[in-house]
């Protein structure tokens, strides 16, 4: 039941974001079409000098209004779905329920994301601090295919520069611990079927210019 609720939360966040973006785009098209019709109607006339001044003033007002609307549109644009956190051009979802490692992978895939892969020190610091306040959380790292050969869910190996983040005495493979979690101030290997929070990651959607 918790897994289904988490999936609903993830999918709803994405759908809400898509609907807002679509509505804003349709509104922009309608306004642009209205402005174009107004300009064409005025061009078809032969205006006097006084009319030309009025028309110029009106066009300036319309331009200012459109500029203001674009500013408001940009404020509404969200690079990440609701309930996701944006960091360095990526979107992160910190789950509110707990599942096993394999179920966490499935949950992320269903919203077009991956169980999080750590790429650099800045991202590690962000993820560690955020997950520390929420609880132990799965990342997309395991040695399921070959013992002690740690690989991310995309098949890439764990970089040597990131091995410093293992907690003291970890990984220890105690009782077949093959999946990795954020735990305290570092990483810890744990049994994959244990229920924990998880973190999804996907690229942010750039706002249209």
TrEMBL record:
<dbReference type="InterPro" id="IPR001304">
    <property type="entry name" value="C-type_lectin-like"/>
</dbReference>
<protein>
    <submittedName>
        <fullName>CD209 antigen-like protein E</fullName>
    </submittedName>
</protein>
<dbReference type="InterPro" id="IPR016187">
    <property type="entry name" value="CTDL_fold"/>
</dbReference>
<dbReference type="InterPro" id="IPR018378">
    <property type="entry name" value="C-type_lectin_CS"/>
</dbReference>
<feature type="transmembrane region" description="Helical">
    <location>
        <begin position="20"/>
        <end position="41"/>
    </location>
</feature>
<keyword id="KW-1133">Transmembrane helix</keyword>
<feature type="domain" description="C-type lectin">
    <location>
        <begin position="87"/>
        <end position="201"/>
    </location>
</feature>
<keyword id="KW-0430">Lectin</keyword>
<dbReference type="Pfam" id="PF00059">
    <property type="entry name" value="Lectin_C"/>
</dbReference>
<keyword id="KW-0812">Transmembrane</keyword>
<dbReference type="GO" id="GO:0005537">
    <property type="term" value="F:D-mannose binding"/>
</dbReference>
<dbReference type="InterPro" id="IPR033989">
    <property type="entry name" value="CD209-like_CTLD"/>
</dbReference>
<dbReference type="InterPro" id="IPR016186">
    <property type="entry name" value="C-type_lectin-like/link_sf"/>
</dbReference>
<keyword id="KW-0675">Receptor</keyword>
<keyword id="KW-1015">Disulfide bond</keyword>
<dbReference type="InterPro" id="IPR051379">
    <property type="entry name" value="C-type_Lectin_Receptor_IMM"/>
</dbReference>
<keyword id="KW-0472">Membrane</keyword>
């Amino acid at each position: 039941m918790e897994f289904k609720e988490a999936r609903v939360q993830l999918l709803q966040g994405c759908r809400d974001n898509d609907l807002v973006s679509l509505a804003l785009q349709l509104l922009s098209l309608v306004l642009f079409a209205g402005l174009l019709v107004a300009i064409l109607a005025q061009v078809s006339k032969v205006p006097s000098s006084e009319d030309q001044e009025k028309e110029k003033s009106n066009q300036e007002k319309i331009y200012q209004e459109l500029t203001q609307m674009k500013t408001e549109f940009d404020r509404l644009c969200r690079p990440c779905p609701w309930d996701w956190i944006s960091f360095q051009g990526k979107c992160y979802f910190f789950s509110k329920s707990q599942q096993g490692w394999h179920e966490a992978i499935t949950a992320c895939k269903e919203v077009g994301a991956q169980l999080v892969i750590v790429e650099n020190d800045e991202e590690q610091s962000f993820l560690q601090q955020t997950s520390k306040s929420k609880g132990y959380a799965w990342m997309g790292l395991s040695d399921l295919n070959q013992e002690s050969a740690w690989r991310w869910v995309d098949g890439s190996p764990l970089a040597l520069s990131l091995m410093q983040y293992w907690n003291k005495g970890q990984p220890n493979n105690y009782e077949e611990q093959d999946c990795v979690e954020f735990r305290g101030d570092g990483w810890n290997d744990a049994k994959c079927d244990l229920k924990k929070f998880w973190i999804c990651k996907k690229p942010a959607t750039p706002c249209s210019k």
